[in-house]
Structure formats: structure tokens, C-alpha cells
Specification:
- With 278 residues, the protein is of the alpha/beta class.
- It has two domains: 30 residues; 241 residues, Alpha/Beta hydrolase fold, catalytic domain (Rossmann fold, 3-Layer(aba) Sandwich), CATH 3.40.50.
- Helices cover 39% and strands 17% of the residues.
- The chain has eleven helices and eight strands.
- The chain has an eight-stranded mixed beta sheet, sandwiched between helices.
- Helix 4 packs across helix 5.
- The longest helix has 20 residues.
- It is globular and about 80 Å long.
Length: 278
């Protein structure tokens, strides 16, 4: 046994180093603004959509970049919170879908993403979404009940956080996780990842605090965020709530599901959105 102690010490030391690396590199593990790059690769006019390029300040003085895509006689306005990689120029497929559904769209890049200033933080991403809400309700005078909040992946936590503090007309969570600690515990079962997590993004808690209509969208084939996260978010949501099961992988499920995806969105919008107030 005495001869094993050097090996045990080495293993424990390596384990400790691994834990420390994970702890201090969490931001780089969570945010991928440079994937594939921070450069905008296209604009909505590539797919024939009119848009306005915006620079919107946050309460703490960071200037964010976004696009507002108008539509004639909108059924509502959708505030789009994207995932943890890339920038708004990589979401043209989604912008086309929402435009065809009759929704005006405001999509933006978090601080540290795309052409937005600053460095990304959890609280910063919440402030960024709040700045977009302020822009819609104050600068464009859009009634809160005519705003739909949409979040995909990490953006679902941002959208849910915003919904828990206001009264939007509806909340759509696509391919969402319940919280970062929950995901960390599943990804790293051999370390106390839940307790080491410096990020929360507690989507489940925010959904519980929101009392308006909720649509949860998830695929059983999601290889990044397991299907049961969507099921647990649906269970946590208050009525009225709906679940739309799609097919395909994490990043492309909404495209793979085609008409089924669009019809699910259409039913939700038809039930809870009107043109009143625009």
C-alpha cells in the first residue's frame, strides 16, 4: 500500500488541476462569440428582407448591435435571444420563418458577440435583453402584451429571465436547458460540477416565475441538450403552456422539422397574439 501513495498523490493532483482548469475556464466553455467568427457574414437583405441596423445602449453603458425587421400589419413583435455561438448574421433562416409568420423581429448580439461592445457575462446578457425590451416598449411604443420573447439554447435562459420581470404576450423556449449547473453535472459526473459552476442561467426558476403563455420546443435527437431538459421546463411552466416536439439535431432541428415546426409556432401565435396596439 505504501508503494501506491505516490501514484495516489499524482492522481489526486491531476484531478485537482483538472477541476481548477474547469473552474477558471468556464466563460470560454460557455460562450463562443468567435464561432465561426465575430464578423457578420450576411444581412437580411440577402434573403430579401428589409431591416434597420441599430445601436442600442444598455443601462451600464455598453453599445449593442442589432437588427429590426419590420413587417406590414404585424401580428406581434418577436424579441430574439440567440444561442451561445456566432452572431445575428447566422440566424437568417429563423428570421425568414418568423417574418413569414407575420412577426416583426428584433434580434441582437449580446455584449462581446458580433458588432456589440464589451465582454459577455451572465448578468450582462440579462442587461442586454432588458435594453432591447426598453427599446421596443419605449422607443417603438409597442405594448408588452404584443411582444413575444423567443430564446434558443442559452438564449432561452435570457428570454425566460426577461419574461419573469415583465408581462410579454408569450414566451418561446427552444432547445433549452434547465440550468447551467444541471448541464454541468451531466457533462462532468466525476467532479462536483454543480457546486463549482460560476454561472446559473436558471431557466427553470425563471419559467416558474412567469405567468403568461409558454411554448417549449425540443427534439429527442438533440445531441447537446438532452430532451428531458425540455420536458422538465414544460413541467415547471405555469398554464397556459404547450410542448412542441421536433426532430433533428440541436442546431438544425427547427429546419429539419420543416412545416411541423412552423405550424406549431403558428398555433401558438394565433392563440395568443393580435395586431392590437401596433
Amino acid at each position: 500500500m505504501q508503494n501506491l501513495w505516490p501514484f495516489i498523490v499524482i492522481i489526486l493532483a491531476a484531478y485537482g488541476v483538472f477541476v481548477l482548469i474547469l473552474y477558471f475556464s468556464q466563460s470560454r466553455l460557455l460562450y463562443y462569440p468567435d464561432l465561426p467568427s465575430r464578423r457578420l457574414t450576411a444581412t437580411p437583405d440577402r434573403i430579401g428582407l428589409a431591416y434597420q441596423s441599430l445601436e442600442i445602449p444598455t443601462e451600464d453603458g455598453v453599445t449593442l448591435h442589432g437588427w429590426f425587421l419590420p413587417v406590414a400589419n404585424p401580428r406581434g413583435t418577436l424579441l430574439f435571444c440567440h444561442g451561445n455561438a456566432g452572431n445575428i448574421s447566422h440566424r437568417l433562416d429563423s428570421l425568414r420563418i418568423f417574418h413569414d409568420l407575420g412577426l416583426a423581429v428584433l434580434i441582437f448580439d449580446y455584449r462581446g458577440f458580433g458588432q456589440s461592445e464589451g465582454s459577455t457575462t451572465e448578468q450582462g446578457s440579462y442587461q442586454d435583453a432588458q435594453a432591447m425590451w426598453n427599446y421596443l416598449t419605449e422607443q417603438r411604443s409597442i405594448l408588452p402584451g404584443n411582444i413575444l420573447l423567443f430564446g434558443r439554447s442559452l438564449g432561452a435562459a435570457v428570454a425566460a429571465h426577461l419574461a419573469s420581470r415583465h408581462r410579454p404576450g408569450g414566451l418561446i423556449l427552444e432547445s433549452a436547458f434547465t440550468s447551467v449547473p444541471d448541464m454541468a453535472a451531466e457533462l462532468y459526473p466525476l467532479i462536483p460540477a454543480r457546486w463549482l459552476s460560476r454561472f446559473r442561467y436558471d431557466t427553470r426558476a425563471y419559467v416558474r416565475s412567469y405567468s403568461g403563455p409558454v411554448l417549449v420546443i425540443h427534439s429527442r435527437n438533440d445531441e447537446i441538450i438532452p430532451f428531458h431538459h425540455g420536458q422538465q421546463l414544460y413541467a415547471a411552466a405555469n398554464q397556459p403552456k404547450h410542448f412542441l416536439e421536433i426532430r433533428g439535431d440541436h442546431n438544425g432541428g427547427f429546419l429539419s422539422s420543416g412545416a411541423h415546426y412552423r405550424q406549431g409556432l403558428e398555433r401558438f401565435i394565433e392563440q395568443y397574439q393580435t395586431t392590437e396596439g401596433h
